[in-house]
Specification:
The chain is mainly α. Helix content is about 70%, strand content about 5%. It contains 21 helices and six strands. Strands 1-2 form a two-stranded antiparallel sheet. Strands 3-4 form a two-stranded antiparallel sheet. α12 packs antiparallel against α13. Belongs to the complex I subunit 4 family. InterPro entries: NADH_Q_OxRdtase_chainM/4, NADH_UbQ_OxRdtase, ND/Mrp_TM. This is NADH-quinone oxidoreductase subunit M.
Length: about 550
């Protein structure tokens, strides 16, 4: 048995413990040691994640590199791991973003110095980087877990380090009441997601009771899905709908889907830019990923029954999020509402039940993570220079910091899905795949593209162009560390925009398997291509 998946989960977990255990202090040398330790651990995790992606065989079994360790025998619970194509790309996305977030947040968690020269929170730096590694470990386990109970445990556990990252390491440009706002945002994030998790726990228990009543006292996902497909596990239609809603509610809160989204603008607005990236580009992807793996796999009939309703909710989220983004005065809240709109596209692609739409939704998870990370991190650099998140406090930045302005523009253009940049491919596939089955929803959803162009370009125009405001004069351009943060994100945005094949090769077999689980097939073309024989049209 290979131990690669266990190592990919264990390395960041052990790194979190090691980083937290390092001695705190006021000296830069000690803080630098904590930072370098965490960065080394995240780099090692990236190497392991890349190895997982390389060793995954698209034409092979659904779950590969499988590992299983008995945990609670009496309830059939095992610490079971396995990777499919979608899990492989999302683990890789997580492993790519975490070291970038750490580099971007290099000075975001320094100890607090009092006016008398004394310091508070001497372990602040160690705490921040340890929490980031803890989040990474729990997210990776969630993407790899093939035991329903294990997934639930880590799905909930990741809320704890995220709570402390939001509430304890907030944005320094938040104003005089920043501490109270951070506490409010952190508590709101925790309560919303805990409520979703409690509902899911009831559904997990219900699934176990039904399965054990039919001789399958297990939480093993492949065993349960195979039994459902073979008719060995029969769930009453009413019970299946109730269980589906229990799982889906938790995932819709995490994603987030309208109208369960209201925690996200608060959390992203009050968190540091790096933490905001962890929220929307890493943690929230667990929700959409779980919809594919658990909702569609365990409850195929209920998924198709509720599909049209979920499509309408996703459509509302697309338009609603984009409209609110247009009217925002706060840069980070604008990015948050833009993300709500984008998550609407992802969920729409999942529940359109076409291979194009689901493949596009999976790519969208990756491409949104990369492009939003670029946009938010550059926005964070901009905000830290000015000390304000308000759009009205900026103007003429491109004249004093052209590289910063240029990278900010690329992030904005990726967000509006400009052709040639990564999000365009995924958004195009989602819209085309949805249109073939639900043309009205596909047409209305294109309004999200128009509104995205509006909020992204208006933000650039109001902050980067025009006369240079007095407070902007002398603003420094991106430094070497900041360029090292942005460069790989820009490169990936362009590379995956012109050559997405490596990702599609990984995810398409898993998408096909998911389509088979829910007994869905792509609609026949309205105008089939004429059959040909020997090069001549018949």
């Amino acid at each position: 048995m290979s131990y690669l998946l266990t190592a990919t989960c264990a390395v960041p977990a052990a790194g979190a413990v090691l980083t937290a255990a390092l001695p705190g202090g006021t000296t830069e040398a000690r803080r630098r040691t904590a930072k370098l330790t965490a960065m080394a651990v995240s780099t090692a995790t990236l190497a392991l994640a890349a190895l997982v992606a390389v060793r995954y065989e698209p034409g092979g079994a659904r779950y590969q590199l499988a590992e299983s360790y008995s945990w609670i025998r009496s309830f059939g619970i095992s610490f079971s791991l396995g990777v499919d194509g979608i899990g492989a790309v999302l683990v890789l996305l997580t492993a790519v973003l975490v070291p970038i977030v750490m580099l971007a947040s290099w000075h975001d968690a320094e100890p607090i110095q009092n006016p008398d020269g004394t310091f508070e929170n001497l372990r602040r730096t160690q705490g921040f980087f340890a929490l980031v590694l803890a989040v990474e470990a729990m997210v990776v386990v969630s993407f790899l877990a093939t035991d329903v109970f294990v997934f639930y445990v880590f799905f909930e556990a990741m809320l704890i380090p995220m709570y402390f990252l939001i509430g304890g390491f907030g944005d320094r440009a938040g104003g005089p009441d920043a501490s109270a706002q951070r506490s409010y945002a952190a508590v709101k994030f925790l309560l919303y997601n805990l409520l979703g998790g409690l509902v899911m726990l009831a559904a997990v228990i219900g699934l176990y009771v039904i399965a054990s009543g039919q001789g399958l006292a297990t939480f093993d996902l492949p065993t349960l899905t195979d039994a459902i497909a073979d008719g060995k596990l029969v769930i009453d239609p009413t019970a299946e709908k109730a269980l589906f809603l229990g799982f889906f509610f938790a995932f819709a809160v995490k994603a987030p889907l309208w109208p369960l989204h209201t925690w996200l603008p608060n959390a992203m607005g009050e968190a540091t830019a790096g933490t905001a990236v962890l929220i929307t580009a890493v943690v929230d992807k667990v929700g959409t990923f779980a919809m594919l793996r658990f909702c569609l796999g365990l409850f195929p009939e209920a998924s198709t029954t509720f599909g049209p309703v979920i499509l309408v909710l996703a459509l509302i989220g697309i338009v609603y999020g984009a409209l609110l983004a247009v009217g925002q005065k706060d840069i980070k809240r604008l990015v948050a509402y833009a993300s709500i709109s984008h998550f609407g596209f992802i969920i729409m692609g999942i529940f359109a039940f076409t291979t194009q739409a689901q493949s596009g939704a999976t790519l969208y998870m990756v491409n949104h993570g990369i492009s939003t990370a670029a946009w938010m991190l550059v926005a964070g650099f901009l905000i830290s220079r000015r000390g304000s998140r308000l759009i009205s406090d900026f103007g003429g930045v491109q004249k004093v910091a052209p590289v910063l302005a240029g990278t900010f523009l690329i992030g904005g253009l990726a967000t509006l899905s400009l052709p040639g940049l990564a999000p365009f491919v995924s958004e195009f596939l989602v819209l085309v795949g949805t249109f073939t089955k639900y043309p009205v929803i596909g047409i209305i959803a294109t309004l999200g593209i128009v509104l995205a162009a509006l909020y992204a370009l208006l933000l650039y125009q109001r902050t980067m162009t025009g006369p240079v405001k007095p407070q902007i004069e002398g603003m420094p351009d991106l430094k070497v560390r900041e360029l090292a943060v942005v460069a790989p994100l820009v490169a990936l945005t362009i590379l995956l925009g012109v050559y997405p094949k490596p990702l599609t090769d990984l995810v398409n077999p898993t998408v096909d398997a998911t389509q088979s689980q829910v007994h869905q097939h792509d609609p026949a073309p309205a105008h089939p291509v004429a059959a040909t024989t020997g090069g001549e049209h018949k």
